[in-house]
Amino acid sequence: MARIAIVGWGSLIAELDSLAEHVRGSWSSGGPNLTVEFSRISRTRANALTLVIDEVHGVEVPTRFIESTRADPNDAACDLRVREGTVIRNIGLIDLNSSIERSKSAVVAGIMREWCAANGYDAVAWTDLRSNFEQITSESYSVEAAIEYLRALPPTGLAAARHYIEIIPKDVTTKLRSALHYCSWWTSVGANPGDDLTLPTPTPRLWK
Hints:
This protein has about 210 residues and is α+β, with helices and mostly antiparallel strands.
């Protein structure tokens, strides 16, 4: 039976959701290092910025992995697709035992292939969503632009953004996360009793 790994670096680690039924054990450190940043606007998270592979604006961070219970890599990829509320083309997949190689980056595909071979896995799946910041805001992504974007969010969106960034593993330190750590405005979000920062009611994940 094929050994299949699922690699994660963002909210997936804290919130397996539907994927919990199709994995065994817990998350392990030692996944492949990937270049990521909080540069995707997620409509299902009240327009919060979410963490995605970003080879232009990101920095290399450690990832984690967990083992799928599936025997077929395509089934494992579909499990991840359901959890992410997206379409299958947004789920990366490398299967060393077949010709299947689905990745939006040849560099990432190579990293995943080498990691699989070095760690005794036959296949690996990962979330292959990319930045849409410029597409939605019509502004080039930068740390400064991202902070201004966050500052302009309504209370529910700001609460969702804060929640999302806070649940990401502490060793996933991107440029934006580092900048926010030293931003007095960000560190004071939700500190005042009068702040209305109630998290929005989750919406069905049809797209992320």
